[in-house]
Amino acid sequence: MSTMTQDQTAVHDDDHHHGAPKGIMRWLLTTNHKDIGTLYLWFSFIMFLTGGAMAMVIRAELFQPGLQLVEPNFFNQMTTVHGLIMVFGAVMPAFTGLANWLIPMMIGAPDMALPRMNNWSFWILPFAFAILLSSLFMEGGGPNFGWTFYAPLSTTYSPDSTALFVFSIHIMGISSIMGAINVIVTIVNLRAPGMTWMKLPLFVWTWLITAFLLIAVMPVLAGVVTMVLTDKFFGTSFFEAAGGGDPVMFQHIFWFFGHPEVYIMILPSFGIISAIVPAFSRKKLFGYASMVYATASIAILSFLVWAHHMFTTGMPVFAELFFMYCTMLIAVPTGVKVFNWVATMWRGSLTFETPMLFAVAFIILFTIGGFSGLMLAITPADFQYHDTYFVVAHFHYVLVTGAIFSIMAAAYYWLPKWTGHMYNERLGQWHFWCSVISVNVLFFPMHFLGLAGMPRRIPDYSIQFADINQIVSIGGFAFGLSQLIFLVLVIKCIRGGEKAPAKPWEGSEGLEWTLPSPAPYHSFTTPPEVK
Amino acid sequence: MTTKHQTYYVPSQSVWPIVGAIGLFFIAAGAGLFVQQMKSGASGGGYLLLLGIAVIVFMLVGWFSAVIKESTTGLYSAQMDRSFRQGMSWFIFSEVMFFAAFFGALFYARAIAVPWLGGASNNAMTHEILWPSFEAVWPLISTPDGTKTEAMPWTGLPLINTLILLTSSVTLHFAHISLEKAKRSAVVLWLGITILLGIGFVGLQVEEYRHAYQEMGLTLTSGIYGNTFFLLTGFHGMHVTLGTVFLLVLFFRVLKGHFTADKHFAFQAGSWYWHFVDVVWLCLFIFVYVL
């Protein structure tokens, strides 16, 4: 392996004139997968802070019962745009950024397969969010119907700016589809010789399957927003019973997109955790093949479970049972994964650097989110939990302590490779402990609020929920502030710090560690041989 | 060792993606504002939309010229060709899923929403209380709130259009075979016929829409039947139009001698796209018109 590192360095020493161009044009015109990955990651972090600020508004309003700070309509806009930003602006672009940075290096490719389209998929995103955010300042306000934009809230009762919402979603969809096509083609077509399917790093496998899900369901989202647009502005009645349509049809089409979408936001996490846990356990991943098959099973099942979001809409009992059992089936492949991670750690020589801390927290806390998901999957029980804070607790456990924690873990794990410097471990540990404590103060009590019947998306609540809401809000502010530690850490790491060797983690495996740190501007112009 | 693999062409910086991003931004913001302003009668959005379309056309011409130049100067390897082919296939798959959303709406409305409004399953009271005189039939010629329309028969124009599109798929296939045998004049002939058939299809569809609006009272606002009819056939018609433009570009490229018997990705892509549009039409013809 060490000889290969030298080969690569030698190739790039001859190639100095191919280094990064300077100035703003480097970023606007780039076709380089690392530049585009960096753009995606910074964009997603900015969106994370923007969406986080909106969450702070929500938690400030809910600190006490009664209407305190904001109008109910503005509160609704905050919950809606917080959700949209975190899903489409923070989590998905962060994963695409990681895919851009890592997949070519992991499979020994020179770049992404379609580099110019790669640039296009990124640069349309900031414009889409500019449109979405600007609609907040228009007459009548921005989207206020929840990120799921159920009809008739998004049709009959929505503000005029819904047209802008629809077209911004279209652009986000185009961006995701192009990004996903690029990922699939890169993986299928640009693997180094000898990089056979069952030698692929799991991050690459999980992204391949995620990309397939993206191409399959983002067009369905485009279809359903188009129907919302025509229902609101062109007199159609897809979601209007008086014209022969059905508002419940909206939910079916939306969740046919929406359920695969939630796996789009977690499958790459599985890949990240499957890279980090073996590295810090200094063992091979337990059950590689079963991980691949489990990921594929989860993806297939994700197309058969959408209506578990709609148990209370009055579906026939047969449909309720079908969707309940299919949903529970997903616990099997997911359980295989959790078992494999734990088995990987079993009798490993473990150390707990920041990436590993986040990975271990992921395994525990994501599992809690998975279990509350099982509770929600039980149809009769769901009649009690539906649209309560229990649901909010559930999906924040899988998305914050799941998706976001894995993204944090990935950032810490690969930062030395990206920047050429080690991050400040002390600061990293502070970030982790502040985050993991505050996030549980924030989301765990929400389970109790939901079980006691507090509805979600309402700016006011009954007096008996006051104490727990106060605790939750304090956890929320603390979690938000903790993320600023991460910002400081990343900036410090880019500017300097201890020089990182090519392979800073002794247990890590994969082609990306055969490149020097920071990785050269063009990696693997000649494909490496994989044995 | 390095000679064993052809190098994969990674283009240096390119101005076209950011031009395209700005174009898409204008289109989305323009279309959004235009739709919003339809009610208030203000203007501005429409101009932004047109500007956006102009920028996108400019971008497409520039971007494709660059790619064609790279291709004709021999920068692309067989591996690059595979990337393009796979990319195009996945793009077509995404288009399939876009149409699937509207077919899904059609099936849901026919099989579930309309029968339930008529009291099927456990919805007897829905029917009794909301619209007791509503009759659940498909095509839904009378909506619950009383909008009346006529159903489009499958004979006549739709049948002629089906034959036209099926024929065009065959003629395009002949063009492709001729290209692979390097018979350029035959390619020009068959491709030309395909384009004429495409234009004929769009023309007849315009006539069909005029007939529906003016003589049958079948409009975009005539309930779920009209909604699914116009959105499905409308999006399909847009795809046929785009496909025809695509074929037209290919036609001029054939005249310029851009394609060879074994290297003609763009032709292949255009042909895949056309066949896909044809298959969508077959589904449309069966599920929207005949059944």
Structure characterization notes:
The complex is a heterodimer of chains A (531) and B (291). Chain A is globular, with a radius of gyration of 23 Å. With 531 residues, chain A is mainly α. Chain A has one domain: Cytochrome c oxidase-like, subunit I domain (Cytochrome C Oxidase, Chain A, Up-down Bundle). With 291 residues, chain B is mainly α. Chain B folds into two domains: 76 residues; 211 residues, Four Helix Bundle (Hemerythrin (Met), subunit A) (Up-down Bundle), CATH 1.20.120. Chain B is built from eight helices and no strands. Classes of the chains: A mainly alpha (531), B mainly alpha (291). At the A-B interface, helix 2, helix 5, helix 6, helix 7 and helix 8 of A face helix 1, helix 3 and helix 7 of B.
Features:
heterodimer, A: 531 residues, mainly alpha, Cytochrome C Oxidase, Chain A, 17 helices, 67% helix, 0% strand, B: 291 residues, Four Helix Bundle (Hemerythrin (Met), subunit A), globular, disordered N terminus
